Amino acid sequence: MSFLPKKRAYRLPLLLAVAALAVGVSGCGILQRTNQTGVSEGQLAAGAEPYFWAGPVTYQVQLSRQLNPYDVDDVQDLAGVAGAQNLNAQQFWFGVFLWAKNQTNRYVTTTDTFKLVDSNGDVFTPVQLNPSVNQYAWTSQTLSPDGIEPVADSAASNASAGGGLILFKLTQNVYSNRPLTLEVFAPGHSKPSLVSLDL
User: Fold this and answer.
1) What strands, in cross-sheet order, belong to the sheet with 193-197?
2) Per-position DSSP letters for 26-79, written without gaps between them
3) In whole angstroms, what is the distance from residue 129 CA to residue 79 CA?
4) pLDDT digit string, tens, across residues 8-61
5) How deeply is 19 buried, as exposed, middle or buried, from its count of CB atoms within 10 A (0-12, 13-18, 19+)?
């Protein structure tokens, strides 16, 4: 017959109760999330929590960067964009590559509403991409439980960025008005989730 030391005997029920509470909170919290703010790509690079959510969907900015319309790889990202090479000296293309996952137990729809805002308050909206022409374009999808976007083995998921492309035409003055903030509006929500992007 063995006995637990007195301190361990008291500690075990307490640890079990805490573990049960943690499981309960993590299980029910997904459907009741509120929009998250304050995530930055710098934090992602530093190994902080890389995910954010808008509504019930979990998102991750895989990469954001300037696109070169004369680069063979970036030309693919700009497929279907009329006059992609006709930029003036003050303009450039900027791509945000986004990934999403439905971690709920119901069907949910990913967003198609985004804005980029610089520290001066200038607002930029995405250029519309035709997904039948541009295989990397981010489009709103209905995800089944545990579903992801872009779907596995698609061109976007297999590309080096690993996310669907949200394309912006920016002006050079954003370099003086950093950081850029990506606003992600969940369907039916007026308050966005915010992600600070490196530029």
Assistant:
1) 39-40, 193-197, 180-185, 113-117, 123-124
2) HHHHGGG------EEHHHHHTTS---EEETTEEEEEEEEEEE-TTSHHHHHHTT
3) 8
4) 444 444 444 434 433 333 333 333 344 555 555 444 444 444 699 999 999 999
5) exposed
Helices (H), strands (E): how many in the chain? 4, 12
DSSP state of 155: H
The CATH class of 33-197 is: mainly beta
Q: Report the relative pairing of strands 39-40 and 193-197 from DSSP bridges.
A: parallel
In this prediction the pTM is 0.78
Tokens found for residue 107:
């069907």
